[in-house]
Amino acid sequence: SVLKHIIGLYEMAVRERMSIIMWQRYVDFAAGLSNSRDEEIRAAAVAAFGREDYVIALLRQGVEATGAHYLQSQALWMQYCDYILHQINKAEGSQKDELVEQLQSVFIERLAQPHTGVDETFTMYSEFTTRHNAATYEQQMVDANKIVSVTRGQSVQRNAFEDRLVESEGSWAEYSRYISGLAADNTTQPAEICMLYERALVTSCYSPEVWSEYGAYVAGAFDDTQVALDVTYRGLRNCPWSGRLWAQCVRFAYAHEGYELASRVYARATDTHAVSYSMVEYGLLAVAWLAVTRADPGCDDEMLLDTCDQCVDVAYKLDPSTADPVLYFERCCTSTAANAKNGTERARKLWTRICKARRFCTEAWVLSAEFEAAHGSAQSARSVFRHAAQRKLDNPERLFDAWLALENTSGELVDIDAAERIVCEQRRVILRRAERAHTMAGPAQSEVVLPVKRQRSVTPEATTADQSTPVDHSTPADSAQAQSTKSDSAHPADQPRVTTVFISSLPRTFTSADVEAFLGGPTQATNISMQIDKAGEFHGRATASMQSASALIAALDKNNTVVDGHHISVHIYKQHAKPVETTVAVRGFAANATNKQIAEIAKPAGTVVRVRRNQSGDTAFVVMHSYGDA
What we know:
This protein is of the alpha+beta class. The chain has helices spanning 2-16, 20-34, 39-49, 54-66, 74-90, 93-111, 118-132, 137-167, 172-183, 190-204, 208-221, 225-238, 243-257, 259-271, 279-295, 301-315, 328-339, 344-357, 362-375, 378-389, 396-410, 413-441, 476-490, 512-518, 549-557, 595-602; strands at residues 499-504, 525-532, 538-546, 561-563, 566-572, 582-587, 608-613, 619-624.
């Protein structure tokens, strides 16, 4: 029983993470049992492993598991060869011939596999052939040379990647390039790609992105869904907070065993509060659960609609500050409901609830109006726009543009005129509200919040206008121009202050020089910053510092300018500093305690940013606004 327990621990270790050292220790442990002088120990080992040839079987298993490791697989493989050679030397007759044939096959397979010791392997094969197959030595070496020449060519490419890995200290970005390079070669075996993922996970095991990509690759490379499911289970043991991994696990579970297993995975994610700290993370899980429910033949439309309602119920009990700004989950949920039989009214109720919960989110109102336009009537969509226009939205210009686009494509002339009147009036209201806030805050500390995209606001240095005379303007540019004129006349000797603008919807072919030229040249705009993603791709957004009030006005006047078919957006930009957050681990609470109750306990100490649980649910991680609060 002790041996079975130890063997079980070794099996768990080599399954959980690829480790050459662990495999060598496992093999050494098995060889030590086999070579023991105590007959009782040898008998117990045979019983525990379930076979007499457990050493050679374990070596073969280890070589199959680690043979694709380009740098470190040679040691275990040589141990495997030495063991077979030892058995050959002891065997006689037909048994010896079988072992010789087996080892020759092992050599050929190894010579075809890229590894750093390919020359050493070739030399060993030559010696083995000389000793045991001398009669066919010449032909066998010719065949082996053809294989080795191909392997050496493959090794050149891998050596270059390995050198870059060393320079980057094993970064995931370099591993990703390595994987992409080998995946582009049709001769690369899936085992070698999997080995690169395993090597990357040694240092990136807490990165959900790596686990998710690994699981997706395995699912496409192998027919056995259990392999992909095992990878995702391992990822969740390391990253239980990842909604992306839980979503992948739900899909793989359904593909492997059907709805029952997928439902258990979803229930475990929700019962352990693994993703309850974020609406975005839960949304990823919920979308996968909706997809499984929709795909299952045993789920009817009524069950699907109930699932949509339940997912929204769970999501909107979470912290609203963690909501998705583009409403990915909400769009999937309402679209699923709308496509179900008799589901349009249920989807409409969902949008009503979403807009009520996220009443300041422009995107929610726009999507609700678009839903009404598609499934209701133009009048009902118009009603949503009118109602939303009265609210203090985070991006009113987005709503105004969507409303006017709807009226100009499907409305009557009277509807277009009515919409434009309401939009102009609301822009005046927003500007008056911003000017009042500026006046109350004082000229030295004020921040003028303009009706622009993503709640951008003018920095304190950007506003130098004299607020003694009230002014009512219909556009941000007119307001900025009036303030600039007063400032210039009152303080002619003052140097122009720098204000940053945010430019979006730029053509992706634009460079910083193009942005500079668009804003008036180097005398008007400086410090052009092109915003790119992790892959280095430009996605049409940039910031620039304007050198004077007149340059700022000219830049704002270019808002909605069409360039190469792109309606370019120009607004004032304000950089928001991120607070320093500190996490506190909390234990010892009741099993039925909710995250909200734990947050209430922590609130007297300071501001609580979010609360999340570990996978088992017995530890809560409370993120406080500052170290002092923590």
